[in-house]
Amino acid sequence: MLHTLAVSGYRSLRDLVVPLDRLTAVTGPNGAGKSNLYRALRLLADTAQGRVVASLAREGGLPSTLWAGPEAFARAVQRGEHPVQGTARKGPVRLQMGFAAEDYGYAIDLGLPTDAAFPFDPEIKHEVLWSGAMLRPSAVLAERRGGLAQIAGDRDRVTLSQHVPAWDSMLTHCADPRAAPEMIALRERIRAWRFYDQLRSDPDAGARRPQVGTRTVALGHDGSDLAAALQTIREIGDAQALDAAVEDAFPGAAVEVTQADGWFEVQLRQHGLLRALKAAEWSDGTLRYISWIAALLTPRPPELLVLNEPETSLHPDLHPALGRLVLQAAKSSQVIVVSHAPRLLATLQEKGGCEVLRLEKRLGQTRLENEDELDVPGWKWPAR
Q1: 336-368: buried (b, 16+ CB within 10 Å) or exposed (e) per residue?
Q2: CB-based contacts of 159, cutoff 8 Å, min separation 6
Q3: What pLDDT does 279 receive?
């Protein structure tokens, strides 16, 4: 389980360290930085796919994603006695992201590009993988500085590569099952993380049309394979939980998956109607909720499940049912929910002991509300 997430220099996240629990909800007013925190976690996941640099380039490169304020705030500025002013930079331009789990920790440091041919591609300057909760020199398992990647040997460090490309993570370039099994293990764990923030419910959504039926243990990021995912839950998952989740939100209703020549289509039977309604006839909220059922009742739960504003398109009356669905998913996965729906958050707190992190903006930077009262874990960034 991840217990710490740290981000420095990314948009409004000038220097933020947050504690994570088995079930964590991130909330706060509009503009507080919830989406930035979610996007930073997705960027961390992109390192295991070898696409973190490309993802940052699509956001406009480092100039568009870096913290736009001063390198540090004087005490007089923090007290409101003087306006914010730019100062001469003392440290390097950098964007840092990292996490610590129960067994491993990982951090990545990205900086300005030196290749004029690709001006929007930031460079990976430094990566560190360590054992335990806190980075210490004796705990380092693998480290990459520039193009040099090394692992800890019996007596000294062993070089894996001297030519790691500036755009490629050591997790993908140097992962060797014999020399660096820890990197293989970490890479595969990160690749298994699941993120949901683009479940489609518009008229052209794939979930509204018949689909070729194939076993689907994890709902796709856009929900287009909804019928196959629901049928897979009925075959190898918890069919009773699926029926109960539908009943919880729509009393007297039941979801069915029909088959014709290998094509699947999902329908909803409701009390009082003479025929089942096809997904093309559902409201946006109904389709979104049924999609969340398929995502959260997956028969192959990931270690980490991250949901970005799952209440979108749902009537507030459905938020408690959604909360109960999230609580069920948290029994088999670590879950992070980014939301500003009071009824959803109340259900998560009252029924599941959810850790709620409230974000706020101070001088343009995202901070934890009442940070002094929280048990914020210690964090140390690797020196470049």
Answers
A1: bbbbbbebbbebbeeebebbbbbbbeeeebbbb
A2: 148, 149, 150
A3: 95
The pLDDT value recorded for residue 87 is: 63
- For residue 91, give Cα distances in angstroms to 67, 75, 146: 14, 19, 17
Count of beta carbons in the 10 Å neighbourhood of residue 51: 18
Cα torsion through 272, 278, 282, 287, rounded to 10:
120
Query: Tokens standing for 300?
Result: 């192959």
Which residues, 6 or more positions from 84, have their beta carbon under 8 angstroms from its beta carbon? 69, 70, 73, 77, 363, 364
**Rounded Cα gap, residues 300 and 218, in angstroms:** 7
Strands 95-101 and 104-111: antiparallel
Which residues partner with 356 through β-bridges? 25
The helix or strand, by DSSP H or E, that contains position 258, with its residue range, turns out to be: strand 254-260
Burial class of 378 by CB neighbour count within 10 A (0 to 12, 13 to 18, 19+) = exposed
Instruction: For 262-272, write each residue's pLDDT tens digit.
Output: 899 999 999 88
pLDDT band at residue 76 under the 50/70/90 scheme: low
Please give the angle made by the CA atoms of 334, 340 and 342, to the nearest 5 degrees. Answer: 95
Residue identified by tokens 């001297």 is 162
